[in-house]
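Please, why this fold?
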Amino acid sequence: MRILLVEDDMALAEAVLSHLKDKGFAVDHVASLASARLALPVATWDAVLLDLHLPDGDGLSLIPAVRRQSPDILIVVLTARDQVSDRIRGLDAGADDYLVKPFDPDELLARLRAAERRKSGGASSIVRVGNLEIDLAKMSVSVDGAPEVLTAREWALLRVLASRLDRIHSKESLLAAMYDFNEEIGSNTLEVFICNVRRKLGAECIQTVRGLGYRLTGGRL
């Protein structure tokens, strides 16, 4: 999942960035509305975490631009405004969820997962593909009931494939979900991670669709 964090409190931003990256998310951070507007067309974002009290205006004013970028982007408002009227205003403006500061980073993760399930129409965090069972909430995967341990990057790759089983994922879209703007990416980086995941889960678990990309098909035989 590629996330844009719009937050001017640097201490909070650094804490959120660290926690989400440890969980395998690609997160880019900007501290103003102007910077956010410049960042929106640069990447394909899955989610925007949006502070409301920004140095150059109200964060809610960004929501129409986010929705023009893509109607399906998840928008989670992060704010110290805790009045019911503020929450109603945020949700009516087009946000998918509203989280009041201070908040637990794990609650933010849970909100992101819940919002993503609502968007995809899924009721459960568990995805079954062939003999793979993937728990998106617990960040765990098993093959024929036997658990396998993935690195954060490997999990980020698997998570994207498992969250959108109906899609063939291009190399560019997968890398965008795994890396933020500040990280260097080698020419064969994705192939290395796909090889690692296949080694752990089975050679046929990720199918290469020639000329198009990759999709998840199941675990080892």
